[in-house]
């Protein structure tokens, strides 16, 4: 889902830049009939749009209550929160939780693991869908292509619980692969629950689950590549790899760069459920990431204030990263529009 | 384009077969193990690639009642009710935001998009849910996730792509806003509604973490949460019901994995033809 979330922001960035290029939204069709050009009072406009506002109300109420309510809940990060006393009764402690973070080795361990996994995701997960998309795009037969696409999209819809269960069944101590190895008289491999193998394991799981789904955006970009350029390159005697390097990749480079920038914006969003499920099997030393740290600090140890502070810290860094990435993407998007 | 050489075509075929096998194989062995007889499973050391003799004992056992049957019902109920509510709310706001010049359109859009930038933290959201008295209520699995910003943006993008002339014509004919939504916009938007509905349904069906923190009453757990106990805790699901002799614990566990997977695999082919179209038009329109 994360890829698609990014597309959402990309689209907004595109929308805004398109609007800017066109010089405002004023050119989108004639004004609806019955609307007078002069400014009306707020009340009259609300009355005119009352049905629309009414159908929008439930969703807006949801955002205000759960999202903005939770935003307000971040005051916990500055409190010595006691559930029994509530937010209003608990003592204010200022920045004490943040000072504690600086010297807390467990927190820094979680930061280290998060950065490590984020870096592994960037290096190994980011290019994987591109490679698969190139492979899928080269399939000539429509039926085969549709079949393979259906198969590789499917894992995206399975929950992390199921994915982790599947990996245990195949790679676990009593799993299929170890069974085969022992039949062949070879020593077993220890993957599940082995801290040394944790990084590769979580990346393999992520690729298994999301790689196929993430090809959608690349496939859409690949379908836009100008067929004539291939023909021209082929006439000039360029083989498959040369065409890939000189035609395909330059053509989809804007999409690759845009996705990369947006991925960097979500660098710290490595996911929660996958790590929550598997932290017990490898222990906190390797398995603790920032979000599991928040969970164990808040819900297992009851240290809600400190947990909220760590969550807020991660959230603020996330906002800064996403904002910076969107600024860059915006610029790239604009450039793309000008070129087109 | 020049035709690829036989060697290249062979390499491609091998690569594709490997990719498909890597996806299908884990699911296959889970299915096979869930259908194998206990002797079969024990002889093989806990897993099966091809069941020697088929047995549905594992399924009949867990579907006879008890924790798993209940969890499946809970998940089904939450998924159906949640998806319906989510769709209604998402369509409503997306439609309003897709109309140009609606009162407060821009502030509403910013209000929504900001939450995308700063998603609620785990602890603050917990406080809100706790404060609204949703503990041990199935609503705690639905209301905090009622509208998804990405789904909303996709749907709004689709609504905006409907030619404004159609809507203006209907308005001239005297249709009300709701009439336009019901008679013009919704019939044209079946694909995107199917896709967004699928996204919501899958998210509700797969959700497991929230029940851990919001429910004290374990009998209300959905299937994902129950399954997680086996995945991380190593708890044997077979203990939850009687009659161990006719089934092996592995078969029962794999049957639970299968039952959690099955609804998704079943609806998937029907919606698959919509979702690429819906996602690409919605997200990539620009």
Per-chain topology:
The complex is a heterodimer of chains A (340) and B (286).
Chain A (H helix, E strand, L loop, with lengths): L1 H21 L19 H7 L1 H24 L5 E2 L5 H4 L1 E2 L3 H8 L1 H21 L1 H11 L4 H12 L6 H12 L4 H8 L14 H25 L4 H9 L4 H26 L7 H10 L1 H4 L2 H11 L3 H36 L1
Antiparallel strand pairs in A: 1-2
Helix pairs in contact in A: 1-13, 1-17, 5-17, 6-11, 7-11, 8-11, 11-13, 13-17, 16-17
Chain B lengths: L5 H30 L2 H7 L12 H6 L4 H32 L6 H13 L4 H10 L17 H12 L3 H9 L4 H12 L1 H17 L2 H6 L8 H11 L15 H36 L2
Helix pairs in contact in B: 1-13, 4-7, 4-10, 7-10, 7-13, 8-9, 10-13, 12-13
Note the main attributes of this structure.
heterodimer; A: 340 residues; mainly alpha; MetI-like fold; two-stranded antiparallel sheet; disordered C terminus; B: 286 residues; 70% helix; globular
The major beta sheet of chain B can be summarized as: none
Q: Which percent range fits the helix content of chain A?
A: over 70%
- Specify the number of helices of chain A: 17
Strand content of chain B: under 5%
Q: What best-fitting shape of chain A do the alpha-carbon axes yield? A: globular
How is the main sheet of chain A built?
2 strands, antiparallel
**Mean pLDDT across residues of chain B:** 84
Low-confidence sequence ranges of chain A: 1-31, 336-340
Distance between the termini of chain A: 29 Å
> If classified by CATH, what would the architecture of the largest domain in chain B be?
Orthogonal Bundle
């Amino acid at each position: 889902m994360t890829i698609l979330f990014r597309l959402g922001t990309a689209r907004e960035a595109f929308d805004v830049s398109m609007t800017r290029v066109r010089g405002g939204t004023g050119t989108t069709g004639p004004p609806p009939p019955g609307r007078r050009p002069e400014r009306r009072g707020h009340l009259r406009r609300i009355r005119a749009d009352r049905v629309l506002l009414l159908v929008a109300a439930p969703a807006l109420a949801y955002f205000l209550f759960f999202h903005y309510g939770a935003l307000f809940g971040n005051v916990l990060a500055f409190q010595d929160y006691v559930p029994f006393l509530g937010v209003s009764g608990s003592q204010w402690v200022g920045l004490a939780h943040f000072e504690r973070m600086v010297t807390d080795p467990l927190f820094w361990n979680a930061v280290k693991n998060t950065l490590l996994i984020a870096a592994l995701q960037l290096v190994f997960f980011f290019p994987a869908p591109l490679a698969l998309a190139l492979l899928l795009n080269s399939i000539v037969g429509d039926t085969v292509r549709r079949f393979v696409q259906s198969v590789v999209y499917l894992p995206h819809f399975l929950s992390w619980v199921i994915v982790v269960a599947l990996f245990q069944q195949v790679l676990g101590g009593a799993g299929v692969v170890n069974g085969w190895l022992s039949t062949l008289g070879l020593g077993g491999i220890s993957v599940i629950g082995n801290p040394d193998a944790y990084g590769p394991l979580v990346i393999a799981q992520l690729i298994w689950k999301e790689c196929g789904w993430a090809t959608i955006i690349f496939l859409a970009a690949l379908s836009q590549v100008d067929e004539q350029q291939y023909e021209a390159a082929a006439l000039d005697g360029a083989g498959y790899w040369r065409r890939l390097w000189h035609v395909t990749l330059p053509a989809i480079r804007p999409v690759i760069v845009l996705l990369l920038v947006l991925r960097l914006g979500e660098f710290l969003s490595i996911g929660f459920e996958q790590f929550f499920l598997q932290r017990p099997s490898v222990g906190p030393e390797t398995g603790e990431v920032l979000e599991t740290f928040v969970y164990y600090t808040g819900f297992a140890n009851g240290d809600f204030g400190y947990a909220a502070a760590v969550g807020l810290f991660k959230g603020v860094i996330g906002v800064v990263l996403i904002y910076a990435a969107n600024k860059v993407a915006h610029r790239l998007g604009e450039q793309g529009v000008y070129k087109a | 384009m020049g035709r690829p050489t036989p060697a290249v075509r062979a390499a491609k075929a091998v690569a594709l077969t490997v990719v498909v096998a890597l996806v299908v194989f884990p699911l296959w062995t889970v299915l096979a193990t869930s259908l194998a007889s206990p002797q079969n499973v024990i002889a093989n050391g806990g897993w099966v690639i091809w069941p020697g003799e088929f047995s549905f004992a594992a399924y009949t056992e867990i579907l006879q009642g008890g924790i798993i049957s209940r969890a499946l019902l809970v998940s089904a109920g939450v998924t159906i009710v949640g998806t319906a509510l989510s769709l209604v709310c998402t369509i409503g706001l997306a439609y309003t935001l897709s109309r140009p010049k609606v009162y407060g359109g821009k502030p509403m859009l910013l209000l929504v998009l900001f939450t995308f930038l700063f998603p609620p933290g785990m602890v603050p959201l917990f406080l809100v849910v706790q404060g609204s008295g949703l503990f041990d209520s199935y609503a705690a699995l639905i209301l905090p996730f009622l509208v998804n910003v990405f789904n909303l943006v996709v749907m709004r993008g689709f609504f905006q792509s409907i030619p404004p002339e159609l809507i203006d014509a209907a308005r001239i004919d005297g249709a009300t806003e709701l009439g336009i939504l019901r008679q013009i916009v919704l019939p044209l938007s079946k694909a995107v509604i199917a896709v967004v509905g699928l996204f919501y349904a899958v998210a509700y069906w797969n959700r497991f973490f929230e029940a851990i923190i919001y429910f004290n009453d374990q009998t209300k757990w959905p299937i994902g949460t129950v399954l997680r106990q086996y995945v991380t805790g190593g708890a044997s699901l077979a203990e939850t019901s009687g009659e161990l002799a006719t089934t092996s614990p592995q078969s029962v566990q794999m049957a639970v994995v299968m039952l959690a997977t099955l609804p998704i695999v079943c609806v998937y082919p029907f919606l698959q033809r919509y979702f690429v179209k819906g996602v690409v038009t919605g997200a990539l329109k620009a």
